[in-house]
Write a structure and sequence with these properties.
The chain is α+β, with helices and mostly antiparallel strands. Helices cover about 35% and strands about 25% of the residues.
Length: about 160
């Protein structure tokens, strides 16, 4: 099967479905780890609605979406603040397509967009329980670094020089 990657409007149905799947998975993982339960459905809806994704609209950002056999399969958003490092966010693949070599594709597209905007460095944060994400970042040349933000769920920080 063939992978493709292309930018997607942050407010499209495809982007909304990917955001919902991403947030549901990371929220459920956190609650299962800390409270032994899944996310409360009302809280889930409230939190999904609270983050529009507008920061991923050009020129301040981009949402590359990976497709597998033509179907939306994952994403990797990038924020492109002027005068600051680019920030990788929303790196996600649907469970059914994991392990098929697609995770790096939207990340590389995000890196290319950051380079094109003049960024020389990409940063990101993640949680300790997202071990697959941490392994992916290490494979793609990201090095763990000191904290660059104080996000409430940030436990590991990474950076990569874009060169």
């Amino acid at each position: 099967m063939v992978w493709t990657v292309a930018p997607e409007p942050y407010d499209s149905p495809v982007a909304a479905a990917l955001w919902r799947a991403y947030y549901t998975e990371v929220s459920d993982r956190w609650y299962l780890r800390h409270e032994g339960r899944r996310t409360d459905p009302e809280e889930l809806e409230r939190e999904i609605a609270a983050v529009s994704g507008a920061d991923l609209a050009p020129p301040e950002g981009l949402l590359p979406v990976a497709r597998y056999a033509g179907e939306p399969a994952g994403s990797a958003g990038v924020r492109l603040p002027a005068g600051a490092p680019a920030e990788l966010t929303r790196v996600f693949l649907y469970e059914g397509v994991r392990g098929r070599g697609g995770a790096a594709l939207p990340v590389r597209t995000a890196e290319d967009a950051a380079r094109a905007s003049g960024a020389t460095r990409m940063v990101l944060d993640t949680r300790g329980d997202l071990v697959e994400a941490r392994a992916l970042y290490a494979r793609l040349g990201y090095a763990e670094t000191r904290p660059h933000n104080a996000g409430p769920y940030a436990e590991h920080w990474f950076a990569k020089e874009l060169g």
